[in-house]
Design goal:
single chain, alpha+beta, about 30% helix
């Protein structure tokens, strides 16, 4: 899934991730966790990985009871968990992802940037094999999203 690097597109990420996982037949509890993880990683890509004119990308792969969520942006700077104070309104996203995911990590993205990933436990899909999903937003604006499941 490719999206414009705007806060509005984080909502689109949530909607698209939920739609794809429902199509794959996953149970609601796993979907909620995966949507939360994708949303937090996408928000980090918008806030910390934004470069003008560059999109960020969200990819998912599901096998058995594990969903791999990957968010790629144009910044080479690795993600950094912040220590948010009790009154801070932000800064807990990576801590939250690490708390609900089975494992997390990051790797360089070619030709530029990085990919941050997390694996989430899902209820097994109901008799459907899930293909990798990539959704794309075109340059027509942040609200223009084209869904595609290869």
């Amino acid at each position: 899934m490719q999206f414009a690097s705007t806060a509005r597109c984080v909502s689109l990420v949530r909607t698209q991730v939920e739609r794809v996982l429902r199509e794959w037949g996953h149970a609601p509890s796993g979907i909620e966790t995966a949507v939360l993880v994708a949303s937090e990683l996408a928000a980090n890509a918008v806030v910390h990985g934004h470069f003008p004119g560059h999109l960020f990308e969200v990819g998912m792969t599901s096998a058995d009871d594990i969903c791999l969520i990957e968010v790629s942006d144009s910044s080479p700077r690795p993600p950094e968990a912040l220590k948010a104070g009790i009154n801070d309104e932000s800064g807990r996203g990576l801590q939250l992802v690490r708390a609900v995911a089975l494992c997390t990590g990051q790797r360089p993205r070619r030709p530029v940037g990085k990919t941050v990933w997390a694996k989430v436990r899902m209820a097994k899909p109901h008799s459907r094999v899930a293909a990798p999903a990539r959704l794309h937003a075109t340059s027509r604006g942040p609200e223009a999203v084209e869904g595609r499941v290869p």
